[in-house]
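note to self: dont lose this again. the chain is below, predicted strucutre after it. 306 aa total, dont forget to put it in the shared folder this time
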Amino acid sequence: MLPRQQLRCYAAIIMKMNSLREKMASNGFESNDDYEFQTRCLLTAPTDKIRTLCIEGDCERRKTAFATALAHSLDFTRILYHDFSDRTPPQPELVLPDTQDDYGRKEPAIEPLDDIASQACAFSEAEPTILIMDQLQMADFREHIRIHRLIRDRQWLIRDAPYYANAHNLVLFLISEETFYHSLRRASFRVWVSRVSQRRIDFRPAEFGLEDSAIPLFDALSDLFRALEATPTRGEFAYLLHDLTEQVQTEMHLRHALFGRFEGIDRERLYGDTANPQLDRVIDRLRDYLGSEPIIIGGDATEPPT
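---
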């Protein structure tokens, strides 16, 4: 059972999650999928060890965008990032002169992982801190073991000098393109981030301030999305509406607009013949609608929607 004070703290964080999807979109990650439940499970976990989120998926760097957007959406005071694939990491803010041991041997420089992990531990003593560790598959297996020990023991060792982490404040995000150390994976709560949204939304004209006369166009677009197996987000759909009113005149125009606006759309399917009937229908319904009244989004059709 978590302490009552800590429960109140997490309750306050979770109350903000009513708009978590919207906040993540404003921080660079838009999806129809809602990650509020997974985040709730992570943040309310017992703090006998460091709470850790393992971000899996088939989307390569989209997982990095997810981690960064989630961290900023949770309003943690400190957000630190380490990429194991970066062979030229930035220099530490404070560069100390070379030191020597009792035998006159020079001490080696602090490794980037040691630098960022010790910072995370130090910041967590007083501030909510998230440490994102990206491209974990590029790390030496011994580093996997060290990260697991940080989660388990709540401390990071550098040359036998311990840096203690406050488990109430520190959260780790792990991202890897391959399966990693079994014990480290088991110590994490896993979340799956897909290349495109799994959830399909059937948008309605009223959501964009349009009259019911736009329903045939929206229905034709919904049929087209199903034929293309596309799941546009609200932002992508709003931009497509703007393109339809300002630029699209032919089926090929519509193809270009769809590819330009929709992340992860299947290009081969889009430019093939499979969806030709649905593309033709959208153009027909667009012409019908524009013949009756223009589509205006946000009161000014000359400005892209936000």
